[in-house]
UniProtKB/TrEMBL annotation:
GO cellular component annotations of the record: plasma membrane; side of membrane
Name of the protein in its database record: Paraslipin
Record key words, sorted: Membrane, Transmembrane, Transmembrane helix
Biological classification of the source: Bacteria, Bacillati, Actinomycetota, Actinomycetes, Streptosporangiales
Protein family per UniProt: Belongs to the band 7/mec-2 family.
Compositionally biased region (Low complexity): 310-328
Domain Band: 21-179
Pfam families reported in the protein's UniProt record: Band_7 (PF01145)
Family annotation (SUPFAM superfamilies): Band 7/SPFH domain
Cellular compartments annotated: Membrane
Length: 347
């Protein structure tokens, strides 16, 4: 192998190495910082880039995507001298690769330390109760302070979240006891209010029941009185109609004195049935009525004797009129005993 061939190979190798150092490919969402002779020259964008070999040097690539960093718990003292442990999560993004490279040595450590100091300043002005209930306020204040402080570093803080706020164990026990007592108190108050409402509703129900019962009794009494009045009116009307009917029937039948006397005799036992009936008042027309009734019985006896002499059934004493002659006591159609001793015989 001659010297010329060796020299050609050396030249080709140098050219290939120079070509490799000249062509640079930058991945998507990253940026490269190019230094020329030790000074910042330019920022390489994603894609194919050409640099001057042996003069330009790529210091490094920076991730331009949004990054999420969770910092370890930090002890923070509140305004009421209680130590709480707070975990934070930072969402940030590099918007200026040059500033993030040359303005701060390590922007991640800077963001962490700035977050810790800002968190202590913010929480130090709050008491424990406000710290536990004001997460959104703390997040907003932290984000504002961090975004202003990291702007010159080429970093934009998008979001700050408090992942956990842990008070001491003794404070947690006290808080649990306080919450339990508060819940027991609210439960007792609710139970008392429920009993009060139940008693009120029960009393109102009983009152309404009494009122409705009294109203129902009044309406029932009114209806009963109306029913009794209507019944009495109907009964009186019925009795009046019955009397009118009997009166009309009597007048239409034209009864004689004998029938009236007979009906009066039938009613005498009903009049004498009561224990207090000691005195009877007999009308003055009673004598004439009895005389007429005796004449009626005499006619009936005479008719029975004529039938016996003619050889009819009454001759053998079997007729119904045979038991009505003589001075013995007779019985009327209603079974009442009629005496004929003082009745004068007429023919």
């Amino acid at each position: 192998m001659g010297p010329s061939l060796i020299a050609a190979l050396i030249v080709v190798a140098i050219a290939g190495f120079a070509l490799v150092r000249t062509v640079r490919i930058v991945p998507q969402a990253t940026a490269g910082i190019v230094e020329r002779l030790g000074r910042y020259h330019r920022t390489l964008l994603p894609g194919l880039n050409l640099v001057v070999p042996f003069i330009d040097r790529i210091k490094g690539t920076i991730d331009l995507r949004e990054q999420v960093v969770s910092f370890p718990p930090q002890p923070v003292i509140t305004s009421d001298n209680l130590v709480v442990s707070i975990d934070t999560v930072i969402y940030f993004q590099v918007v200026d690769p040059r500033a993030a490279t040359y303005e701060i040595a390590n922007f991640l450590i800077g963001v962490e330390q700035l977050t810790v100091t800002t968190l202590r300043n913010v929480v130090g002005g709050m008491d424990l109760e406000r710290t536990l209930t004001s997460r959104e306020e703390i997040n907003t204040e932290l984000r504002g302070v961090l975004d202003d402080a990291t702007g010159k570093w080429g970093i934009r803080v998008n979001r700050v979240e408090l992942k956990a706020i842990d008070p001491p164990a003794s404070i947690q026990d006290s808080m649990e006891k306080q919450m339990r007592a508060d819940r027991d108190k609210r439960a007792a108050v609710l139970a008392a209010e429920g009993q009060k409402q139940a008693a009120i509703l029960t009393a109102e129900g009983q009152k309404q029941a009494v009122v409705l019962k009294a109203r129902g009794d009044a309406e029932a009494a009114v209806l009963k009185a109306q029913a009794e009045a209507e019944a009495k009116a109907m009964r009186a009307k019925g009795e009046a109609d019955a009397i009118a009917m009997v009166f009309r029937a009597i007048h239409e039948g034209k009864p004689d004195q004998e029938l009236l006397a007979y009906q009066y005799l039938r009613t005498l036992p009903e009049i004498a049935r009561g224990d207090a009936n000691k005195v009877w008042i007999v009308p003055s027309e009673m004598g004439r009525a009895l005389e007429g009734l005796g004449g009626l019985f005499t006619n009936i006896t005479g008719a029975a004797g004529g039938a016996e002499s003619s050889g009819g059934p009454a001759a053998n004493g079997a007729g119904p009129a045979a038991g009505m002659s003589g001075a013995s006591g007779e019985r009327g159609a209603a079974g009442h005993e009629i005496s004929g001793k003082d009745t004068p015989a007429t023919g």
